[in-house]
């Protein structure tokens, strides 16, 4: 008797477990969970965007409306952006951000790729320590280096220049780039290098013709990460730049927080400009970013 | 008895080595195209050093197909990589066509190599893969195209030229890898276990193809494998290696028939040679093992010349043991009886595992469905084909090494 009770019990549990499993993996549950997540991540972008189109009064309206009423919006609709670009020097800030981010990315990709290849293919005395040392530099909290950098650039007369920002951003991104590229190169079989040497290529030809083309996803990941970091970095840009000749978008946007009033609509517009490249990269290159970052984690 | 060495290639592939003959190569023998003189490679990572290749001396003739064979870690691949220039050698020198290649980068040595993994460039099409070695040498485009087409025709891969490596089967990738080597018309071909990633059937097919190709092209080739069947079928000569040392260099049949030591005897041949601890009593004319006693053949005595009684290792290949019959009362001197422990029916022959007084050994015999597990049978040993090895060193007493 007891045995059969137990059997029935097990059977019931099995069925309950099964139905829970079915519920969790059903199309509706999956769609519901994913939709919530997408909403969670995209709502701030949406909110920033509509705020950037509102008047200050529209922003302060309570309760806030999810879809803004025409009375809350500026007219013409791009007025806040036009104001930022023409009256608030955002044309210069955008230009500065672009130059700093592009130059930093070019330097980091070049040296990160070459150094990563070196670390992946060649042994030299104390190579592991050198590698850890390079990575370790990145582990220091950036704010701890603010004062030394400030003093250094002061001595070199580089305060309030884009060069100073490029130097700092290169310093902060190169270690990660070397690490990512090294791992990516390790995932490319060394047989290919050797086949290329035997085919008659020099080391540099091997790198250029065979290895680098195969490492494109890694290069793309490094380029995107470095560009975005440099584009949106705030702390050092705030400390090292003072005028429109070097200020970047994040610092420009912060100027909208004034002594007596926060110009939320301009701040939102500045913030949205700062988001644009990230949105663009994610839409265009999301596959590269994922495959570049996971290289080395999974053989492939 | 032994396979002839392949004659040097004639026609357009003939190399003019007179211009090199005056340079280096101190003790160049007449027909040596590639010389390995005292090659030693030591891997030394600080406190731990491993001798991968120990004082290797081999002369390879122009157009010869030489196969290095041995268990993994025996130094055969290291030797190949040293010739290619992928490894720096510790001692000795390598001379190709009269030219000491010491310190030369792989691209200066003009050798081609086929890798076990094929190492095709994944981002290039088949024709771009084959073209690459010509491209980095700065050959004009139309000449490159012509050569790629010719090699593709030779390998019957013309229809694959526009495909990507990832869309090819293993056998096709192998052909492309061969094509990339052939297209260059290099001085020497190097093969690093090129067939071991193929399935068994394809491997046998490609082995035949390689034989055909070598006959057509006739270039000096060095081939590394752990597969003794590949070694036997492909090589003009075989180099058997173990623990960094060359054990025997000889044509395949000679290596098989006249192994210079018990390692070679055991490594070449499948199923492998049977070994027995034996005592040779010259006066009584007997070879005594725990399993049986055989007469000490005259030809062995002539070769060994020793008298008295001595301990040795007796070796005989499974196919040199035959079944005389289901027999209990065999008396002839070269007869022994044994119990059948396992019968493996292979179709063309039967593999028998036999036991006699606690000693197990194998025989390959004609198919005979009467044979059953537990049968007692009488055996005949082919005394012309047996071996005696030194008890300590393992060196053959009947086929001394000339090295």
TrEMBL record, chain A:
Transmembrane segments annotated in the record for this chain: 28-49, 93-117, 129-150, 162-181, 210-229, 236-257, 263-285
BP GO terms, sorted: transmembrane transport
GO CC terms in record: plasma membrane
Domain ABC transmembrane type-1: 94-285
Keywords in alphabetical order: Cell membrane, Membrane, Transmembrane, Transmembrane helix, Transport
Subcellular location: Cell membrane
InterPro entries: BP-dep_ABC_trans_perm (IPR050901), MetI-like (IPR000515), MetI-like_sf (IPR035906)
Membrane topology: Multi-pass membrane protein
Signal peptide: none
Gene3D superfamilies given in the database record: MetI-like
Cited CDD domains: TM_PBP2
Pfam families per the UniProt record, alphabetical: BPD_transp_1
PROSITE patterns listed in its UniProt record: ABC_TM1
Family: Belongs to the binding-protein-dependent transport system permease family.
Entries under PANTHER family matching the protein: INNER MEMBRANE ABC TRANSPORTER PERMEASE PROTEIN YCJP (PTHR32243:SF18), MALTOSE TRANSPORT SYSTEM PERMEASE-RELATED (PTHR32243)
Protein's name in the database: Carbohydrate ABC transporter membrane protein 2, CUT1 family
Lineage: Archaea, Methanobacteriati, Methanobacteriota, Stenosarchaea group, Halobacteria
Automatic annotation (TrEMBL), chain B:
Residue span, ABC transporter domain: 34-268
SMART domains found in the cross-reference section: AAA
InterPro entries: AAA+_ATPase (IPR003593), ABC_transporter-like_ATP-bd (IPR003439), ABC_transporter-like_CS (IPR017871), ABC_transpr_MalK-like (IPR015855), ABC_transpr_MalK/UgpC-like (IPR047641), Mo/tungstate-bd_C_term_dom (IPR008995), NA-bd_OB-fold (IPR012340), P-loop_NTPase (IPR027417)
Chief subcellular location: membrane
Keywords, sorted A to Z: ATP-binding, Nucleotide-binding, Transport
Location in the cell: Cell membrane
Residue numbers spanned by region Disordered: 1-29
Domain of life: Archaea
Pfam families xrefs: ABC_tran, TOBE_2
Membrane topology type: Peripheral membrane protein
Keyword Signal applies: no
Catalytic activity: L-arabinose(out) + ATP + H2O = L-arabinose(in) + ADP + phosphate + H(+); D-xylose(out) + ATP + H2O = D-xylose(in) + ADP + phosphate + H(+)
A single GO BP: carbohydrate transport
GO cellular component, one term: ATP-binding cassette (ABC) transporter complex, substrate-binding subunit-containing
MF terms in GO: ABC-type transporter activity; ATP binding; ATP hydrolysis activity
EC number: 7.5.2.13
Subunit and interaction comment: The complex is composed of two ATP-binding proteins (XacJ and XacK), two transmembrane proteins (XacH and XacI) and a solute-binding protein (XacG).
UniProt similarity note: Belongs to the ABC transporter superfamily. Carbohydrate uptake transporter-1 (CUT1) (TC 3.A.1.1) family.
Task of the protein: Part of the ABC transporter complex XacGHIJK involved in the uptake of xylose and arabinose. Responsible for energy coupling to the transport system.
NCBIfam families linked to this entry: PRK11650.1 (NF008653)
Protein name: ABC-type D-xylose/L-arabinose transporter
């Amino acid at each position: 008797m007891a045995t059969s009770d137990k059997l029935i019990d097990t059977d019931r549990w099995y069925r309950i477990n099964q139905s829970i499993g079915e519920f969790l993996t059903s199309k509706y549950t999956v769609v519901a969970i994913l939709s919530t997540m997408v909403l969670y991540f995209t709502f701030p972008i949406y909110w920033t965007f509509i705020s950037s189109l509102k008047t200050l009064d529209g922003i302060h309206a309570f309760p806030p409306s999810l879809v803004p009423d025409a009375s809350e919006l500026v007219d013409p609709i791009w007025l806040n952006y036009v104001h930022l670009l023409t009256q608030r020097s955002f044309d210069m800030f955008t230009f500065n951000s672009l130059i700093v981010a592009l130059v930093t990315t070019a330097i980091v990709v070049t040296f990160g790729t070459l150094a990563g290849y070196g670390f992946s293919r060649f042994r030299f005395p104390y190579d592991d320590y050198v590698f850890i040392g390079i990575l370790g530099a990145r582990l220091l909290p950036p704010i701890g280096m603010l004062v030394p950098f400030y003093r250094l650039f002061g001595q070199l007369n580089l305060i309030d220049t884009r060069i100073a920002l490029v130097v700092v951003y290169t310093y902060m991104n190169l270690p990660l780039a070397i690490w990512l590229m090294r791992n990516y190169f390790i995932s490319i079989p060394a047989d290919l290098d050797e086949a290329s040497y035997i085919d008659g290529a020099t080391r540099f030809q091997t790198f250029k013709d065979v290895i680098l083309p195969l490492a494109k996803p890694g290069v793309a990941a490094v380029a995107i990460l470095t560009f975005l970091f440099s584009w949106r970095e705030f702390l050092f840009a705030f400390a090292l730049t003072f005028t429109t000749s070097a200020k970047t978008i994040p610092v420009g946007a912060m100027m909208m927080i004034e002594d007596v009033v926060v110009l939320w609509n301009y701040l939102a517009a500045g913030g949205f400009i700062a988001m644009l490249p990230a949105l663009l990269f994610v839409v265009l290159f999301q596959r590269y970013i994922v495959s570049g970052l996971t290289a080395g984690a999974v053989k492939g | 008895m032994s396979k002839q060495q392949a004659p040097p290639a004639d026609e357009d592939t003939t190399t003019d080595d007179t211009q090199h003959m005056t340079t280096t190569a101190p003790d160049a023998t007449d027909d040596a195209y590639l010389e390995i003189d005292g090659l030693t490679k030591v891997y030394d990572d600080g406190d731990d050093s491993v001798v991968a290749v120990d004082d290797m001396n081999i002369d390879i003739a122009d157009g010869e197909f030489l196969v290095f064979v041995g268990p993994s870690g025996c130094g055969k691949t290291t030797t190949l990589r040293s010739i290619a220039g992928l490894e720096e050698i510790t001692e000795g020198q390598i001379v190709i066509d009269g030219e000491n290649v010491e310190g030369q980068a792989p691209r200066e040595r003009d050798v081609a190599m086929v890798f076990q993994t094929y190492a095709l460039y994944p981002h290039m099409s088949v024709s771009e893969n084959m073209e690459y070695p010509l491209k980095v040498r700065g050959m004009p485009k139309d000449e490159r195209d012509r050569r790629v087409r010719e090699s593709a025709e030779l390998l019957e891969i013309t229809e694959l030229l526009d495909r990507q490596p990832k869309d090819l089967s293993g056998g096709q990738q192998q052909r492309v890898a061969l094509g990339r080597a052939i297209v260059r018309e290099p001085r020497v071909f190097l093969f690093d276990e090129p067939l071991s990633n193929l399935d068994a059937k394809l491997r046998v097919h490609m082995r035949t193809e390689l034989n055909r190709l070598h006959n057509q092209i006739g270039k000096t080739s060095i081939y590394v494998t752990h597969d003794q069947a590949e070694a036997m079928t492909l090589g003009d000569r075989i180099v058997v290696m173990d623990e960094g040392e060359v054990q025997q260099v000889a044509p395949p049949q000679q290596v098989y028939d006249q192994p210079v030591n018990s390692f070679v005897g055991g490594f070449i041949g499948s199923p492998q040679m049977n070994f027995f601890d034996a005592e040779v009593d010259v006066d009584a004319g007997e070879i005594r093992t725990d399993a049986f006693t055989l007469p000490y053949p005259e030809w062995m005595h002539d070769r060994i010349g020793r008298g008295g009684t001595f301990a040795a290792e007796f070796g005989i290949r499974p196919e040199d043991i035959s079944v005389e019959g289901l027999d209990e009362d065999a008396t002839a001197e070269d007869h022994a009886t044994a119990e059948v422990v396992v019968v493996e029916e292979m179709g063309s022959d039967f593999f028998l595992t036999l036991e006699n007084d606690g000693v197990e050994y194998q025989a390959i015999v004609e198919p005979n469905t009467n044979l059953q597990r537990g049968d007692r049978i009488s055996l005949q040993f082919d005394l012309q084909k047996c071996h005696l090895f030194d008890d300590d060193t393992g060196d053959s007493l009947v086929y001394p090494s000339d090295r």
